[in-house]
Amino acid sequence: MLRDMCPHRFAPLSKGKIISDQLQCPYHGLRFNSNGQCVFNPHGDGVVPKAAVTRTYPVLEKFGLVWVWMGQKAADPAKLPNFDFMDDTRWTYVKGHIHGSGYYELFTDNILDLGHAAFLHTGLSAPAFTIGKRHVFQDGDTVWSNVSHPNDFISDIMNNMFNSHGKRFDAWTDVQWTAPGSMSLLSYYAEPGTPKEDGHMHTSIHVMTPESPDTTHYFWAFGRDIHPDNEEFSAKLRAGIEYAFEEEDKPMIALQQAQVGDRDIMSMRPVLLAGDAGAVRARRMLRKLIAQEQSNGEEASDQKQSVDA
Ligand code: FES
Ligand SMILES: [Fe+2]
């Protein structure tokens, strides 16, 4: 991946176009190869200045996403979250992307505590998220934030999927967070009193990528094994999910960001409720991993390089 800044007059290269495997800057037309090296100068004698290089970052393509390493280290597949189910043909996915106002941890909090569903999302609301039993624990460098709730009603979006309006289920929702902001969310719905594995299941991922201190790219995918080839069903499902994320979560997080500003939300001494345990653990783990990285000198040298570049 190339840094989004041309070394000439610093135009965003992302607005350029690809010409014969080279990226042409949209402003004065310098062209760069995939190593960030300028290889074509349309001006004057055409000599390419030595300094005409833009920084590159290592990437990996996995689980249908491109993962970028913004620091000094090489890409390390061991650091990716476990999204194996994304490559499993059993699941049919609808996918989407949201660009939102808000520090990325505010978006992460939103998934680690689904207790907001009853108040913000009528279509996704289910008693389990508010009164279910919570089980939060660490697993290596990851954090699980799980909820279970027996014999109760489930959300409309799930009822539409299972055609189960008015039925009760035992329900489990297991969220696994991997630093810095990737989460899998696995939901299980079983006949009351029957094992979790015998019920319906669906998968989803929620990947938060910080763009700036107060904006975030949110990539999501939702997998089902019901009506796999039904495109009309996919379109309805996508519309329901997009409505919840775009029209309900996103504006609320933007308002929250406006209140919090550039402060760390934990420094404001927030009141903590039962559902906050997962988000608190994840923040603690993230800070520990950042401190480890900084003690290796990685982040400091990266910042210097960015400023000097
Ligand atoms: S800013 Fe890119 S060529 Fe001038
Ligand atoms: Fe939400």
UniProtKB/TrEMBL annotation:
Gene3D superfamilies: Naphthalene 1,2-dioxygenase Alpha Subunit, Chain A, domain 1 (3.90.380.10), Rieske [2Fe-2S] iron-sulphur domain (2.102.10.10). GO terms for molecular function: 2 iron, 2 sulfur cluster binding; metal ion binding; methyltransferase activity; vanillate monooxygenase activity. The keyword Transmembrane does not apply. PROSITE patterns: RIESKE. Keywords: 2Fe-2S, Iron, Iron-sulfur, Metal-binding, Methyltransferase, Oxidoreductase, Plasmid, Transferase. SUPFAM superfamilies: Bet v1-like, ISP domain. Its EC number is 1.14.13.82. One of its GO terms (biological process) is methylation. The keyword Transport does not apply. Residues 1-68 form the Rieske domain. It comes from the Bacteria. InterPro entries: Cholesterol_7-desaturase, Rieske_2Fe-2S, Rieske_2Fe-2S_sf, VanA_C_cat. This is Vanillate O-demethylase oxygenase subunit VanA. The lineage of its organism: Bacteria, Pseudomonadati, Pseudomonadota, Alphaproteobacteria, Sphingomonadales.
